[in-house]
Design a protein that fits this description.
The protein is of the alpha+beta class. Helix content is about 60%, strand content about 5%. The protein is globular.
């Protein structure tokens, strides 16, 4: 790696063949990412695109090799890459087994983030395989690799921003004179952008690996800035801990993101300490007073991780496990262990500043790798643990059947959530309530979290629609007159979102229809409410315009404390038109709608 360690000796030099391989690999990565992630692939390749094994290898291996290769015939490096490829294939096999058709995105997003984290922490251990045996696993070598990789990522991001800015300027200039070619090439041709990404990635890696003076200068500038930031962050951390006893821990339980904020503070101090502390340096930074301030913050750092663990534990006890909470706990545990190690280093009697950090960071980085692998394997499968926990809470009576998040099971927990959702159709708590059982069956039929269904099922539903059956299924509000036959006949066309029509025909009384004059034209509009959706009651208003029924408005009733009382009011016809208190205005012959800030308009 073309950086300089603390003795001034350069890392292994990157020969010309290696530079050519890097550019080629990065361009190939752009092409492969386009192939595996783009929706523009030809139909004959549809069976191979979005392949989880191809995505995993294309996302990781080119970066690993480009940042590690020195000599093309280095057997030690290629053997290590082969072992990593087997590990990645195993992780891809696990995620493939956990993907359900409707929840692939939620599983793959977290998996790709795990891959990025894995690459960051594994990469230095792969890079040092090209070092001389005497320096291979020294902390100085690993630290230099982490520094180079971080700067490479920052440089790549900067180059991407500049490149996109230049392309946007070019496209805008030519659009001024009516030439759309460059706009279409830059922003409507996915293959071009993927190749640009690959080229810029390769260029940034080559720059970082062939310009040691530039990289070291950048590293020193960043270190100088962060060195001044550490005392300020340490002061804020101490002040917070000083104030906390006066406010009490109850405030943490009421905050929405307490654990994430506390963990971020702890990780920020850990990161800044690593940047400020020179590798193997005996020189103590800062004057003594400032150093004592920083030491005090490091010494108390475990309290932040403990408080974050406490806040997360409250959420788990109240709402059970989710994949996000499980991953948060793993992150907090790593933060706690690192904080304890750094605190012990503060009270070490060694004359240097934080002398044990260089010995502790290596096992901590290995622990991160192990936990990332475990969280993407059957060992700590977050989806299995979360789904089993939520079902167990239902069985033990900690939550009621109506409070089970069916959408979460369907779209956020992979195959295990879908299997649990299917099993709920035989669960006594759901079979005893026709409304809940229908909600489970309808959720199983949904193809997206926004309520759409399979096109074939939607077409079949519209084809088999019968007015007589709809009138029996949809309840007429007390005291209301039934809509005319034209509205009933056109309901499948009027209902743009098929889930409402499906819900209305799935269960007797799930939908309630009323007729109201909402615009003082002496003609009654139709007010149709779907009460089957768990989080809300959604209503649609239909009006006759130019002799045809059309949808004129909609109303979503969220966060109702007593949903049953609301449904009862709808069934009893307790719905009255309320005219707006504040009027719109007409300017230049056109009506202008005013959105008032008052609670009542």
């Amino acid at each position: 790696m073309p950086q300089f360690n603390q003795t001034g000796r350069p890392m292994p030099h990157l020969p010309t063949p290696g530079r050519g391989l890097i550019i080629t690999l990065c361009l190939l990565q752009g092409l492969l990412l386009y192939f595996f992630f783009s929706d523009h692939i030809a139909a004959r390749f549809a069976g191979f695109s979005h392949n989880i094994y191809g995505q995993t290898m294309a996302f990781t291996l080119p970066v690993l090799i480009s940042l590690s290769v020195v000599h093309l015939n280095d057997r030690r490096l290629w053997a290590s890459v082969a072992l990593l490829a087997l590990l990645l294939a195993g992780m891809a096999t696990w995620v493939k087994s956990n993907i359900a058709e409707t929840s692939a995105d939620s599983v793959l997003v977290s998996f790709n983030l795990s891959l990025a984290l894995l690459v960051y922490f594994v990469l230095p251990w792969l890079q040092v395989q090209t070092f001389p045996a005497a320096n291979r696993y020294r902390y100085a070598s690993l630290s230099a690799c982490y520094s180079q990789n971080t700067l490479s990522a920052m440089l790549t991001f900067l180059l991407m921003l500049l490149a996109v800015g230049v392309m946007a300027l070019c496209a805008a200039l030519f659009r001024l004179v009516g030439i759309e070619y460059f706009h279409e090439l830059f922003f409507e041709t996915p293959l071009f952008m993927y190749l640009v990404y690959g080229l810029l990635l390769g260029a940034s890696i080559v720059i970082c690996r062939t310009q040691p003076a530039l990289i070291n200068t950048t590293r020193h500038i960043i270190r100088f800035i962060l060195k001044g930031l550490l005392p300020l962050v340490a002061f804020v951390a101490l002040i917070f801990l000083f104030v906390l006893p006066f406010t009490g821990l109850s405030t943490l339980s009421q905050a929405w993101s307490a654990a994430s904020l506390l963990t971020t503070m702890a990780l920020s101090i850990l990161l800044l300490v690593n940047v400020v502390r020179e590798t193997d340096s005996e020189v103590k930074p800062y004057p003594r007073a400032i150093r004592l301030l920083v030491n005090a913050a490091i010494l108390l750092l475990p309290l932040y991780a403990i408080l974050a663990l406490y806040a997360t534990g409250l959420r788990v006890s109240q709402h059970g496990w989710t994949p996000e909470r499980l991953r948060a706990v793993l992150l907090i545990v790593i933060t706690l262990l690192a904080s304890l190690c750094y605190s012990l280093s503060v009270i070490d009697k060694h004359p240097g500043w934080l002398p044990r950090i260089t010995q502790l960071n290596k096992p901590l980085s290995v622990l991160v790798v192990i936990l990332v692998i475990a969280a993407n394997s059957p060992l700590l499968d977050p989806y299995r643990i979360s789904v089993n926990n939520q079902i167990a809470r239902l069985d033990k009576g900690k939550i009621q059947a109506k409070d089970v998040d069916l959408k979460w099971l369907r779209f956020d927990t992979g195959r295990r959530g879908n299997d649990a959702l299917a099993a709920l159709q035989q669960h006594p708590a759901f079979t005893a309530d026709p409304r809940l059982l229908t909600a489970v069956k309808n959720m199983m039929a949904q193809t997206s979290r926004w309520g759409s269904y399979n096109d074939k099922n939607a077409a079949e539903l519209a084809k088999n629609y019968r007015v007589e059956e709809a009138k029996k299924r949809i309840q007429l509000a007390k005291g209301a007159t039934s809509p005319d036959d034209a509205w009933w006949k056109n309901l499948p066309l009027l209902e743009e979102f098929r889930n409402t029509l499906r819900d209305c025909l799935s269960l007797q009384g799930a939908c309630i229809v009323n007729t109201l004059d909402l615009n003082n034209d002496r003609q009654k509009e139709v007010f149709l409410c779907n009460t089957l959706d768990a989080p809300s009651v959604n209503c649609r208003i239909y009006a006759r315009q130019a002799g045809k029924w059309t949808q004129a408005g909609e109303l979503y009733l969220y966060e109702e404390k007593d949903k049953s009382a609301l449904i009862t009011a709808l069934r009893n016809g307790e719905v009255k038109p309320m005219q707006r208190k504040w009027s719109d205005v007409q300017i230049d012959g056109k009506r202008r709608v005013i959105h008032y800030n008052h609670d009542e308009e």
